[in-house]
Structures
1.
Amino acid sequence: MKGIILKNERLNDKYRLMEIESPEFAQTAKPGQFVMVKTGLQDYLADPLLRRPFGVVDVRGNTFRLLYMLVGKGTRLMTESPAGSVIEFSSSLGNGFKSVKNQNIALAAGGVGIAPLLWIAKLLKDDGCRVTLYFGGRNQEDIILADEFRPHIDKLIITTDDGSIGEKALVTAPFEKDAAGFDRVYACGPKRMLQAVSEICVKGGVPVDVSLDERMACGMGACLGCIIYVREGEETVQKRCCVEGPVFDGSKVVWESVCR
Amino acid sequence: MSVLKVNICGVEFKNPVITASGTFGYGLEYARFIDISKLGGISVKGISYNEVRGNPMPRIMETTSGMLNAIGLQNVGVHKFLKEKLPLLRKYDTRVIVNFWGKTIEEYVQVAEILDNADIDMLEMNISCPNVKEGGIAFGSDPSMTAKVVSECRKAIRNKPLLVKLSPNVTDIKPFAKACEDSGADGISAINTLLGMAVNIHTRKPYISNVTGGLSGPAIKPVAVRMVHEVSKVVKIPIVGMGGIIRWEDAAEFFLVGASAVQVGTANFVDPELTLKIVDGLEKYAKSQGLSNISELTGKVDLSK
Ligand SMILES: Cc1cc2nc3c(=O)[nH]c(=O)nc-3n(C[C@H](O)[C@H](O)[C@H](O)COP(=O)(O)OP(=O)(O)OC[C@H]3O[C@@H](n4cnc5c(N)ncnc54)[C@H](O)[C@@H]3O)c2cc1C
Ligand SMILES: Cc1cc2nc3c(=O)[nH]c(=O)nc-3n(C[C@H](O)[C@H](O)[C@H](O)COP(=O)(O)O)c2cc1C
Ligand code: FES
């Protein structure tokens, strides 16, 4: 699919927010899904070669948004794609977060892991859930989109490693204190954080869905480059993060194989 | 589209663009995204007798205009493939080539016998995967071993044409191609991935758990073109050329140095529709060159000074 970049906004030195117009995509995407993206420049250069996976932040009318952190070549080229230029992407991929009604929900985000949580927060809130967001980062720079969340959540708890905003702690510290009170938890962020959140949830008997990042070549289940391991009964089975994920039951993930 | 119709080892393909093994799953993964009936053929992920879970993660890393992979020939095994994948794939109007391998000659023969009686169009024997210790590369890096495994499989295969897929990780590819032809191969596929490595300078560790991986994508195209050219000089059987094809122009280059059909691998990851764009591009090119069939291009490189 192709779309027009409407906005490619710099949030700070580390993050950008891109808004893309594509009615076709906007009609089909679901919260928690992701998209493989390639800029016009990439197409021309053949380096970087592969498309890059990004979570869908939300869909509004005919547009959708991506939040991206500057990492390397691919994201650098994204910053160089101005409003008005064309960008190529896959259809919406993977399974998303399931929506539930009238429950007490916690969202736990680490850094750019906030990206796929805004949309599900909106839906949950509309469906009568009480939503608390635990949002952790290295410093203030990582606490992005928090203001956009406010109308869709009941409570926001921010932590940073350096205390530049919110509590000086890991996001798991305040979360652990409250965890047992939630009906369900959705989490996205660094793998170690997701592991810690899942372990807390398992201890408290709370269902937990985590959105995992794995390096992806195809994003559509063909290359087998994005394998993660989950427990099914006594067995350890392989799943493709792109097709069977990126959202997995955190209590089933074999974390030793995922956090390398 | 008769200008693109080709006959490879007695099998007619509606066009000469085939998806390369390991880059298109069992075909079904892509059926949701493109019309796979428009492809000349699909070479499925390398099949072995038993199910194989592959190498530990991480298995892939992007490199300059290419990628490294060490998937480790993960597959569902021949029985599950025939039962669960093939019937679904056969619903599409495209040729099915089954790429296969074994850890021993006996296992190669065992899988070949089963596939020979299956509803498929062609076999492609992989003696060239750099990512598994047993099998694969061991048979592809010594011409006498190549001759042995090809002739043993040849005896077991009675009903289908046999392609043998060569490794580029040898100093001279010609004796391998010759050994295949002499041992009864009906065609040659070339090339598989080039052995490569990439290191993270911050952690000082290799990016891929297997340390080395197979390099594919546009970065390897000049090597692949050279090797297909060399192979074409020593064999008369058809060559299916591949390695770094990402545009129709790349495919045309392979025809010129001797290919009768092409496979497209890594490009499927970059854009699932690229193969179809290559089909269109080749058709226009063939017509603009005044060819009545694309095969008139095969081996027509002009080496005169
Ligand atoms: C399902 C999914 C959703 C994601 N959602 C977001 C998001 O919403 N916002 C965001 O900023 N990032 C997200 N990421 C991570 C993002 O894909 C990488 O940061 C990005 O690919 C880096 O590309 P680069 O060219 O700038 O970096 P490079 O380091 O040059 O990339 C080299 C290779 O590594 C891969 N890669 C690097 N980091 C990652 C990573 N963390 N995960 C997967 N592949 C990686 C690249 O795709 C590329 O193939 C997501 C990853 C996945 C798998
Ligand atoms: C992820 C991946 C998996 C592969 N798996 C197989 C395989 O199972 N059997 C095989 O013969 N070749 C396999 N290959 C090699 C390709 O079929 C092809 O020969 C090679 O990638 C070069 O072509 P390309 O540059 O167009 O990708 C694989 C390649 C990649 C990238
Ligand atoms: S990225 Fe290729 S199988 Fe998941």
2.
Amino acid sequence: MSAFTHPYFVHALLAGTAIALAAGLVGHFLVLRAQVFTGDALSHVAFTGALAALALGYDLRLGLFAATVLFAVLLGALGPRGRTDDVAIGSVFSWILGLGVFFLTLYTTSRNTGNGTAGVNVLFGSIFGLSSGQAELAALVAGLICLAVLAIARPLLFASVDEAVAAARRVPVRLLGLVFLILVGACAAEAAQAVGSLLLLGLLAAPAGAAAHLTDRPYHSLALSAGLAVAEMWAGLALSYSVPQLPPSFAIMAVATAVYAVAMIAVRRPRARVGLAEA
Amino acid sequence: MNWADASAGWSWNPVTDLQQIWAFPFMVNAFRAGTVVAVLAAVMGWFMVLRRQSFAGHTLALVSFPGAACATLLGIGAGFGYFAFCVGGALVIAAIPRAGQGGSGQESALTGTVQAFLLACGFLFVALYKGFLGGVNSLLFGSFLGITTAQVTVLTVAAALALGVLAVIGRPLLFASVDENVAVGRGVPVRALSVVFLVLLGTATAEASQITGTLLVFALLVMPAAAAQQLTARPALSLALSVLIALAVTWTGLIAAYYSPYPIGFYVTTFAFAVHVLARAARTLDSAVDRRRFAGAGAVV
């Protein structure tokens, strides 16, 4: 395989696999808990965080993680299970995006090292541009997120499917919700490095949505979501490598969307059964 | 008035400042376009917030980016791309039952995937169109520098048409939004109204995208309306208030952007957010005062 002789491709494969695994696991719970809009908001926050860090002269990843985790804690503190009003979330994140533009201009005009494509890279990702150190760190962090999700998977599943019963059984529902939001924030920051802050919502939602269509059994669906995400990442990277006109983040999104569409068309089931796991 | 006079700084005299700003034809056009967009976005956004269709509005707003990128790639005016994609997107959302109203996990996963895929398509169009990278930022975050008189005319005509249609369906739409079941019972065509409203919302987002950019349209749609609905419960009054807030936010945003190096989108969202926060604070304060007055009068709640 000639692709593996290019270091940039190997780095992208390493980081991409770990990131897709984490996104598939976290995304499954995001869809199960109907918190996709929260994921959307966190992705916008990732953009502002990254550009704020660049404008102030720090590492981009520091800003990504600081902003998303902070916002996740804020959302968790504002409402039970982080479900604040849609309009309130919308207002806050559209302002945060505006703030991101401010930092973008600050970065491109005031720092002489700044380049005009930084904003585009943050928004749409540049997975083929990772160095070996960046790729290894990304893989390590994504691995930690995966382990954390698996560690709380059982109680979190219980709390997501039936909150009232879980609370009665002394499952710490509120704490789990907060920990989960922090994991979503960390995962959003991770995924932003691969597919960009605008597109990471697709990586979170598409494999999980497809998996939820294909099976009702919770652990199967969790494993399927992670497996699909990794397979889609590989297919997307291969596609982008063989057709250089396609940017990698577009190729990954296209494969993920196609898989979701196929899952929806292939498995036509009654809506009631799909909705069963959501409660 | 020569260039040196016109480009002088803020003088704290509103009349001369406005004269300076309006000495530039592009600023006059920006004010005209901004006014049209603010009125349209505030009215559409008011109904959007009332109908709890924020997610649909957000999705429609994002669709305008691939639209503009596709039009640029094909070599036709970006305005056509905005309108074609936004109105098309509105029809698609209208076809999915209950989509865009929050909905369950599965439905919002679908909306999220469609959103991300369309944005990825926009990125692909941009990547295929070489040398377009500088323009991405102005597509995404807005720019008021290049608005031509012809564009202002198109915007005004489209806005007038959209507001005209809304004026015709306004009363039944309000009825259907406030209490859908009763409206159905009275024979109001709720479903048809919903489709027409989504198309109008698509038109509004297509227009507003050209001023604030794709990513920040949502701010102009949601925040003035949300602030106005915090302040009063009477429909006509809060609709008027929403328009006033949007106008104030857009005008101050234009002036601030003229005097500083930062883009207009940042100012519009920041001012709108400030108004929203103030409105919430006023509401909280007001209800606290009410509660105390009731308690003082000896009323038991």
3.
Amino acid sequence: MTLAPARPTATPVTARPVRPAATPARGGRRTLFAAVATAVAVLSVVSLFVGVTDVTPAGVLAALTGADDGAAGLSDAGVLLVSRLPRTLAVLLAGSAMAVAGMLMQVLVRNRFVEPSTAGTVESAVLGILVVTIMAPGAPLMGKMGVAAVFALAGTALFLRILRAVPLRSVLVVPLIGLMLGGVISAATTFVAYRLDLLQSLGAWTTGDFSGVLRGRYELLWLTFVLTIVAYLAADRFTVAGMGREVATTLGLGYRGVLNLGLVIVSLVSAVVVVTVGVVPFLGLVVPNVVSRLLGDDVRRTAPWVALLGAGLVLVCDLIGRVVRYPYEVPVGVVVGVVGSVLFLYLLLRRDARVA
Amino acid sequence: MTSQRHPRARRAGLALTLVSAFALTACAGDAQDVEPAADAAVTAQEAPSEVTVTHAQGETTVPVNPETVLTFDLATLDTLSELGVEVDGLPKSNLPGHLAEFDTDDVLDIGTLFEPDYEAVNAAEPDLIIVAGRSAEALPELEKIAPTIDLSNDWADFRGSVEANAEILGQVFDKEDEVAELVADLDADIEAAREVTAEAGTGLIVMTAGGEVTAYGPGSRFGFLHDELGMTPAIEDVEAATHGEAVSFEFLAEANPDWLVVIDRDAAVGESGAAAEQVLDNELVAGTTAWSQDQVVYVDSVDWYIVNGGLGTLSRMVDEISTALAG
């Protein structure tokens, strides 16, 4: 049960170099990937036509060809451009980035139960936003994000620091340390917010919610797309780093550098997502675990899957949130929390679970 | 490290540990445990007389014209200030501008709107404590120190409860005539406002916070705009929106109200006054009648959201609406 990266013999959780894939051979997997990708694409199109305003493909066509008035002066095509497309893109970007960030975190810390929100990263980012809000309420979005990212980085570094100081590391102790660290940080955040009567604003920031997404209000999320691509390009390095410091160093990898790159990606992604839509819990935990079970731990091979399934899961949850209380909305953070915890429990309780 | 080594029960245990740890981090705050005040029997020597009032949490007998009065409720403070009654202690950290006169050294700071500082309350040896809404849960503990009444507002009958609470205060402080006068003034203001709203078309109440928007309907905490002032609700499905519902900007565009009444929660609790306008200023809201006709009313969020009740505040809220709509 103990897991210590310093002793590679201890068979760390993710250290099975490349876990043999449980699924069919390469060809079959490609087909499956294509199928899932198609499903997500279809859902994305569905998402474009779900909302309070009645937007239909026919209406969009009519608006494009002739003049057709939609809601409050906006044509169907207008609503699509201003509201639906940005929202769908935001969901896909945030979902894939958070899932990939979770995967990176798991590989780097070598523990399957770690993700940005179980390692103090997200909590630190929230603390950063609170600090900016108090010190410079009028700061532009980029400024807020910058500060949140710096806090997220510091929080994650602190997590790793504490981790190094803990002699006994069972699989569950690592995320528990992260949870506790996150708890301490959010306790501090809550205290300050309470003192300054910002508790409810804090609630609004931290519950992941896409209802405010419009053209001009989500573009920051494209940054996560860039970061996801960087993660993919450096995938092989992450895989090697995931084998532990000794192995990585022996193989000629600049372990520190790769670790830092991973942390910067994870922290930036967390900061951007928290600033623009709020916290989406469990995602970084559930998706990489499912994918790893199916495909093993080769980051290059699993990254596209993690990104795709992360995007798909958030998309489904956002659709549910939009539909169940129509025309009102249930925040996606709540839906993902419910769906995610069920999936997570299932993962943990499954008989052949390979997570521990 | 392989799964076979672990019995299933243990795995379940581990799972539960982890999941409950998740749950725990989401929880915050626990019950304040406080020693019951020992000397609750502050010798009620020759109080002129007593009056029994019926409030939100039952009946309580309180002295008439109590000497030391503590209130955790800003709406009560607002009414008392209208009546010219002095208050000896209140949560000073949240005082809105128009009640700043109470922020003096003579007035004790007795905690926050939500959480009493029991030591300070006990030390003040109060004759009457008033709680409401945010502090209503503290009543059982406070009752051990001194007679405590709960003047919470009833959202379903907001105006009625504001007036009823004022009448209770009138009885307790022997100012029933003054209260009757103020209530009559308020009634007249409301009648006048009803005439304005009758002509104004539909309205929708929204609150903005942290970039997100919630909508409120009749019967909600801000519903007196519809219920009492008679503004036609812009949304049909009023049932669902009584507690404030998260909505998208498409919802605002579809509801297309003639008037948009905006409560900026971020402004109520901090600075940044233009926050609500920034949130609403987008292509979807721009298409609504309210926005294009410049009929968006940013109401005083401290009055609406923080104090929310009290004779003085309510009459200012009514004035605010009639002035804006008539303007």
